[in-house]
Specification:
single chain, 247 residues, alpha/beta, eight-stranded mixed beta sheet, two-stranded antiparallel ribbon, 10 strands, 34% helix, 21% strand, elongated, disordered C terminus
């Protein structure tokens, strides 16, 4: 059987939820199915509860990270614009996900309805399928039919002058550190990231994990006693546990 293409592997990842992806990336470092790519507590490789999935009905979204930073206009720096963000998305592997860090003063940070219908339409045109940000955006009713996923702190109807401060630099959004080119997997549970060269390894292991968990859940659904549940979580049958006790 021919090895699946990169696009086929990315699409296959959408068959699995984000918590399952975290399980094989780093959550259970002692598990043989876990790659152990990060210390699960000390490294910032998944999002916290400060942002939420805006369109959970869209299901899982997977893509390559493109990053940028937005903030107030700086009179000493006006080199970049949103068109530079579009160029970066256009040059990225597809599909892409924009991770944009908002660096606004605290007194207005919750009022910045940054990315709306026009920006989202432009991003979609160059192969972007979703965006993650530590602040709000707007036009969620207009964007909904586009089937473009957002993870945001919330929504806000307006904004004032703003500017692009950096494109394709490391950013930190909602407790997750992201570099350009990393793979993002997100759903209504949150988002996580892993290196692009680990795509095949993550997919292979999460497929194996799904089979393992399906077997375990089926056994738990048929368990009748605490001893049976304990045995199932121990990785062997209740009958085998009873044999050990009797030996």
């Amino acid at each position: 059987m021919a090895k699946p293409s990169e696009q086929e592997m990315l699409e296959a990842l959408r068959n699995h939820d984000t918590p399952s992806i975290t399980n094989v990336v780093a959550t259970y470092p002692e598990s043989p199915l876990c790659l152990g790519l990060y210390n699960p507590w000390t490294e910032n490789w998944y999002t916290d509860q400060s942002i939420r999935c805006i369109y959970p009905e869209l299901g899982r979204t997977v893509g390559y990270a493109v990053t940028c930073v937005f903030g107030l206009p700086d009179p000493n720096y006006a080199r970049l614009s949103f068109m530079d963000v579009i160029d970066a998305l256009d040059q990225s592997k597809k599909p892409s996900i924009l991770v944009f860090q908002q660096k606004f003063p605290p007194d207005i940070a919750g009022k910045v309805g940054l990315s709306g219908g026009n920006m989202t339409t432009a991003m979609s045109a160059v192969g972007c399928v979703g965006a993650i940000s530590n602040g709000p955006s707007r036009d969620i009713d207009e964007i909904r039919p586009m089937k473009f996923q957002y993870m945001l702190s919330g929504v806000s109807a307006g904004h004032g002058a703003m500017a692009v401060h950096a494109v394709n630099v490391p950013v930190t959004v909602a407790g997750m550190d992201v570099s350009p080119g990393e793979i993002i997997h997100m759903d209504e549970n949150g988002a996580c990231k892993f290196p692009g060269d680990k795509l095949e390894a993550v997919l292979t292991r999460v497929q194996a994990l799904q089979k393992e968990e399906e077997t375990r859940i089926h056994a738990l659904q048929n368990a009748k006693t605490a001893a049976e549940v304990r045995a199932i979580f121990g990785g062997h049958s209740y009958a085998a546990e009873e044999d050990e006790k009797g030996s």
